[in-house]
């Protein structure tokens, strides 16, 4: 039983990382219809920068905050290039973000090299219901919960949040009532960058990060987000946690080697079932 | 492209191999392989209108099919024939469920396919595991020069097949699918079957190139087929021009030569050890972004100013 609790909490901690990446994807996709392939790169940049700042002597907290803010700036930068030109279709933007994600490799290797990086998180071991787990997993869960809660309040209660939601549900109507849809899109990209960066700085202490970690992150994040059709943040959160727990349980109870495959097959299955249920595919926007 | 240019191109292609030093001859062979795979990507993206991020998976399937058969004693010709067939068969099996997906869903699905394949190959002892499959015999074509002619014959055949498909009734149907599936279906185009056929054909191109690659290098490992390789093929197809016959050739040539030149620059004394890798990532990424934003139809359609062949 204590094994089970341990796997569950560890899985939730790992899943929280996927959920944050997924929330970033959803935030951007809702408003701009763009699937941001560079989402995993934000996590890598934030984590690498935080590692450098910590080893330069910056205190915990400040270093992580700088990492997340830098990722938000990176998000804004990607947004400007991906949706900045009028007439860029979401399909084109996907390819642009793919190109930017690959370019990010070059920048990351020049600055931080190609070796895995990590840094210390919350030290110590916590005992929950008889299970011993690294205390850092609890920190991940607490921060993720707080941030996503704050985000829900932001979307529901603030003018900017409501404007973002308006753009998500009907860009044309939003424009009519005077909302600058393009600026909201850029804001969504910055928000996505911050969420990706947060995923990076939170999970790096428990799993190292390399310049090409972004592929695993983006695939797992996409798998989580796709459960909610890339538009529902709450489902993306649930999807991320489910994915993390399923992978950890698989690893814990034997089939550890196949956890990546399990997640990917789940992703494929969900997408195929969704496509079958939707029936005839609506014409792609182009 | 008119007949005179085409003939000149063919003459240059055929006279070049004996004149090239060994180092460049290898690049020439690999360029031909890249052009073959890119021709398939260009058909798929240009006519089925879909981004594929897993084409290197079919390249790998072709390579491993040829490699495994011949390592276990089959004649090399059988391996070479099996490569495109196995890849196309895999594409039909996988494509039947997956081609219900569109746009970014299909992009991620193909990426997931490749990650699954790499992971399985890396753990499969029957495929040599992470160390790879060794001791694949050579094709009896007479060394590197023979490979160069073989590969470029394949390129010519693949481009001819693409050209004929593009110009045929099937090609018109595909172009209709790429523009509007609803309209195509309403005009009697069997959308699902057409998409599956293009998917299988593009996989066959990739598989054939993979088979030759296996014989040429004599060695295969999961690490030879990274996700970045799939992205490279997309970059080549987009830069050259989607839905054109010569676009893949131009795209592959431009990218391979550029990366080769930067590689030479990056390995100069005094350059840091990471320079070649960094330069090639930068080339792939920035060229893709710049092409999509400023030359959305790619090099070939922009230069020839023909109406775009399906993407608009």
TrEMBL record, chain A:
Q: Which PANTHER family match?
A: ABC TRANSPORTER PERMEASE PROTEIN (PTHR11795:SF450), BRANCHED-CHAIN AMINO ACID TRANSPORT SYSTEM PERMEASE PROTEIN LIVH (PTHR11795)
The positions making up the signal sequence are none
Major subcellular site:
membrane
Instruction: Show the stretches that span the lipid bilayer.
Output: 6-28, 40-59, 65-83, 95-113, 133-156, 184-202, 222-245, 257-276
Q: What taxonomic classification does the UniProt entry list for its organism?
A: Bacteria, Bacillati, Actinomycetota, Actinomycetes, Micromonosporales
Instruction: Supply the alphabetized keyword list.
Output: Amino-acid transport, Cell membrane, Membrane, Transmembrane, Transmembrane helix, Transport
- Pfam family of this protein, just one? BPD_transp_2
Recorded source organism is Catenuloplanes nepalensis
Localization, per the record, is: Cell membrane
Q: What is this protein called?
A: Branched-chain amino acid transport system permease protein
Family (UniProt):
Belongs to the binding-protein-dependent transport system permease family. LivHM subfamily.
Q: How does it sit in the membrane?
A: Multi-pass membrane protein
UniProtKB/TrEMBL annotation, chain B:
Q: From what superkingdom does this record's organism come?
A: Bacteria
Q: Where are the transmembrane segments?
A: 25-44, 56-74, 80-99, 106-126, 146-166, 196-217, 278-296
Q: How does it sit in the membrane?
A: Multi-pass membrane protein
Establish whether keyword Transferase is in the entry: no
InterPro entries with a match to the protein in the record: ABC_transp_permease, LivM-like
Q: Where in the cell is it found?
A: Cell membrane
Q: Which UniProt keywords apply?
A: Cell membrane, Membrane, Transmembrane, Transmembrane helix
* PANTHER family noted in UniProt: BRANCHED AMINO ACID TRANSPORT SYSTEM PERMEASE, HIGH-AFFINITY BRANCHED-CHAIN AMINO ACID TRANSPORT SYSTEM PERMEASE
Annotated protein name in UniProt: Branched-chain amino acid transport system permease protein
């Amino acid at each position: 039983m204590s094994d089970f609790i341990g796997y569950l909490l560890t899985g939730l901690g790992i899943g929280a990382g996927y959920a944050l990446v997924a929330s970033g994807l959803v935030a951007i996709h809702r408003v701009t219809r763009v699937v941001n392939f560079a989402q995993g790169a934000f996590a890598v940049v934030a984590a690498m920068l935080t590692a450098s700042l910590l080893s330069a002597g910056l205190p915990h907290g400040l270093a992580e905050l700088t990492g997340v803010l830098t990722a938000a700036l990176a998000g804004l930068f990607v947004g400007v290039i991906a949706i900045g030109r009028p007439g860029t279709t979401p399909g084109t933007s996907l390819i642009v973000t793919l190109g930017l994600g690959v370019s990010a490799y070059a920048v990351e290797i020049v600055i931080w090299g190609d070796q895995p990086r990590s840094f210390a998180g919350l030290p110590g071991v916590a005992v929950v219901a008889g299970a011993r787990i690294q205390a850092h997993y609890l920190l991940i869960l607490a921060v993720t919960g707080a941030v996503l809660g704050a985000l829900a309040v932001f979307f529901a209660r603030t003018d900017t949040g409501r404007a973002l939601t308006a753009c998500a549900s009907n860009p044309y109507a939003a424009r009519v009532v005077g909302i600058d849809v393009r600026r909201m899109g850029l804001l969504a990209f910055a928000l996505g960058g911050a969420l990706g960066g947060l995923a990076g700085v939170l999970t790096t202490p428990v799993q190292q990060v390399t310049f090409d970690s972004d592929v695993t992150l983006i695939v797992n994040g996409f798998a989580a987000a796709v459960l909610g059709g890339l538009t529902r943040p709450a489902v993306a959160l649930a999807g991320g946690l489910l994915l993390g727990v399923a992978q950890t349980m698989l690893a814990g109870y034997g089939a550890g080697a196949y956890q990546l495959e399990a997640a990917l097959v789940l992703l494929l299955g969900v997408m195929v079932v969704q496509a079958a249920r939707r029936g005839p595919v609506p014409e792609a926007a182009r | 492209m008119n007949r005179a240019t085409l003939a000149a191109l063919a003459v240059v292609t055929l006279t070049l191999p004996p004149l090239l030093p060994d180092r460049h001859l290898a690049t020439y062979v690999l360029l031909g392989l890249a052009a073959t795979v890119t021709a398939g990507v260009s058909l798929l993206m240009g006519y089925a209108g879909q981004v594929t991020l897993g084409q290197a998976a079919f390249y790998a399937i072709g390579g491993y099919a040829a490699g495994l058969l011949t390592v276990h004693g089959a004649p090399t010709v059988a391996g070479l024939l099996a490569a495109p067939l196995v890849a196309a068969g895999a594409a039909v099996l996988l494509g039947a469920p997956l081609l219900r997906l569109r746009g970014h869903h299909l992009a991620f699905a193909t990426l997931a396919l490749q990650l699954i394949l790499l992971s399985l190959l890396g753990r499969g002892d029957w495929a040599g595991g992470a160390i790879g499959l060794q001791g694949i015999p050579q094709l009896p074509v007479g060394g590197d020069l023979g490979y160069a002619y073989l590969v470029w014959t394949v390129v010519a055949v693949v481009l001819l097949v693409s050209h004929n498909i593009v110009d045929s009734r099937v090609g018109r149907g595909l172009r209709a699918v790429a523009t509007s599936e609803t309209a195509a279906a309403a005009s009697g185009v069997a959308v699902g079957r057409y998409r599956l056929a293009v998917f299988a054909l593009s996989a066959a191109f990739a598989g054939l190139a993979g088979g030759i690659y296996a014989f040429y290098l004599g060695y295969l490992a999961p690490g030879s087929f990274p996700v970045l390789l799939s992205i490279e093929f997309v970059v080549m197809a987009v830069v050259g021009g989607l839905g054109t016959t010569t676009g893949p050739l131009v795209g592959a040539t431009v990218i391979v030569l550029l990366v080769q030149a930067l590689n030479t620059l990056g390995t100069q004394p005094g350059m840091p050890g990471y320079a070649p890798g960094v330069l090639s990532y930068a080339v792939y990424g920035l060229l893709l972004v710049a092409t999509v934003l400023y030359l959305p139809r790619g090099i070939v359609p922009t230069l020839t100013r023909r109406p775009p062949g399906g993407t608009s």
